[in-house]
Amino acid sequence: MNKLIDLLKSTYFSENESIIYMYLLENPGQTVYEISKNIRLSRSSTYPIVDKMHQEGMLLLESGKKELYYAQDPKELLNTLDFKHNENMIKLKKEFEKVKIQPLKTPYFNLNGFDSILGKARTLLYESRDEVYMSTDLPLELFEDAFDFLNRKGVDVYIFTFSKTNYSKPNVFIFSHQISEPSSNRLMLVSDLNSVLVANFDPFRNEWQATATQNHLMISIVSEHIHHDIYLIKLKNAMNVSLFETYPELAIHTKAEQIGRKLLKTDDE
């Protein structure tokens, strides 16, 4: 009975309305006095509630020497509630159309600490429904159960990494530079082109920091970055030589470029 009362309260019933309805369902044909006495609610409080419930079709009234109240048949009640719900949804839709809604600013959430960042990454993975892009040198075993879960859902994961790895899952496609000991200091993850997480280890603070957002520009930038890394490594593998070695004129000689080229040096070099 308590469960039914809680469910009624979650629809259009107040707590006292829920109690009165359930009481009359089990004890039909009661006066207001009898109702108030048995549910331990004052008559002055019970009268307006019972009258309102009768007016709204939740209760039925039998007139005679005494006015006796009955609970509406549950099937009829559910039909009434369903109709009222649909009617209110239509009204809500019309009223919302009249409101001048201000554009929503997409928030950026900052996270600190490796465990909280890893937890956020795993949450995004578990919530993914379509496709995931990742760029990381972290051990992929950290996401093992999430990858298995996504495999059961039919969600593919595309990963760029500098790390040397033999990791294998049917739904995980890895594009690696196969560097033996890269520094595991970054993680980028895009979920369903709807959410993005960018994280790295800050050596000055000696801790992991991250930003998570649903900002479309940020999602687009990170998605393109990961795709371009994958395209470049596929070109390198197809040509069996670095793109810069084949086309040295591509270099623009920036500091970022120099750091990147040092990072790409393998142990054999």
Automatic annotation (TrEMBL):
Spans traversing the lipid bilayer? none
Which taxonomic lineage does the organism of this UniProt entry have?
A: Bacteria, Bacillati, Mycoplasmatota, Mollicutes, Acholeplasmatales
Per the record, the domain of life is Bacteria
Gene3D superfamilies documented for this protein: Winged helix-like DNA-binding domain superfamily/Winged helix DNA-binding domain (1.10.10.10)
Under which name does UniProt file this protein? Putative transcriptional regulator, TmrB-like protein
Q: Which InterPro entries match?
A: TrmB-like, Tscrpt_reg_TrmB_N, WH-like_DNA-bd_sf, WH_DNA-bd_sf
Q: Which organism is it from?
A: Acholeplasma oculi
Q: Name one Pfam family in it.
A: TrmB
Transcription regulator TrmB N-terminal domain boundaries: 13-75
